[in-house]
């Protein structure tokens, strides 16, 4: 999320027409077409964040600037060339790394929160012990996971929270 991303079409030497058909999970479909002989671009229902990327090492690519959750969906590139018609399909899934917060609750138990991640993060503890886990889904497709670590001893708890996520793993330690 937040970075620029590029999708490429099948590369052929004699391309006459390239069309990107985008079907987002949410919102209206969008089409970008480029006719090589007329050097003409036609765009229908596409946001300003999606545009052609012209490069010398590749004829055409689609660039998505500042990728967001709204860009998730199916992207199909269709190429018309002398050699025939070709297509490439991509399923774009956006990962959102969670924000890790670690604190002590009013009972002195460590609380680990992996806020607003996509997909939901997995939380584990060291040392191993009892823990509870709650998940809260948000309207934008992200999920907050809250885990409370409970230990049987009455002494100060030194605990480390480990958050596993496809966008990267994180850990923090606390003494309650």
UniProtKB/TrEMBL annotation:
Its main location: membrane. It is a single-pass membrane protein. Keywords: Disulfide bond, Glycoprotein, Membrane, Transmembrane, Transmembrane helix. It comes from the Eukaryota. Residues 1-93 form the Ig-like domain. GO terms for cellular component: external side of plasma membrane. InterPro entries: CD200R, Ig-like_dom, Ig-like_dom_sf, Ig-like_fold, Ig_V-set. GO terms for molecular function: signaling receptor activity. One of its GO terms (biological process) is regulation of neuroinflammatory response. It is found in: Membrane. PANTHER family: CELL SURFACE GLYCOPROTEIN CD200 RECEPTOR 2, CELL SURFACE GLYCOPROTEIN OX2 RECEPTOR PRECURSOR. Belongs to the CD200R family. This is MOR1A protein. It comes from Halcyon senegalensis.
């Amino acid at each position: 999320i937040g970075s620029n991303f590029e999708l490429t079409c099948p590369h052929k030497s004699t391309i006459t027409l390239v069309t990107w058909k985008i079907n987002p999970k949410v919102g209206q479909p969008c089409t970008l077409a480029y006719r090589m002989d007329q050097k003409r671009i036609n765009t229908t229902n596409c946001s300003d964040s999606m545009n052609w990327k012209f490069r010398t090492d590749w004829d055409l690519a689609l660039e998505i600037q500042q990728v967001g959750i709204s860009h998730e969906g199916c992207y199909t590139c269709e190429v018309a060339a002398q050699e025939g018609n070709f297509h490439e399909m991509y399923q774009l899934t956006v990962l959102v790394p969670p924000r890790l917060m670690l604190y002590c609750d009013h009972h002195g138990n460590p609380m680990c929160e992996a806020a607003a991640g996509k997909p939901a993060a997995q939380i584990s503890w060291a040392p191993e012990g009892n823990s509870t886990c709650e998940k809260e889904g948000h309207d934008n497709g992200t999920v907050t996971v809250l885990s409370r670590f409970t230990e049987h001893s009455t002494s100060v708890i030194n605990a480390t929270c480990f958050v596993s996520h496809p966008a990267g793993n994180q850990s923090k330690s606390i003494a309650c």
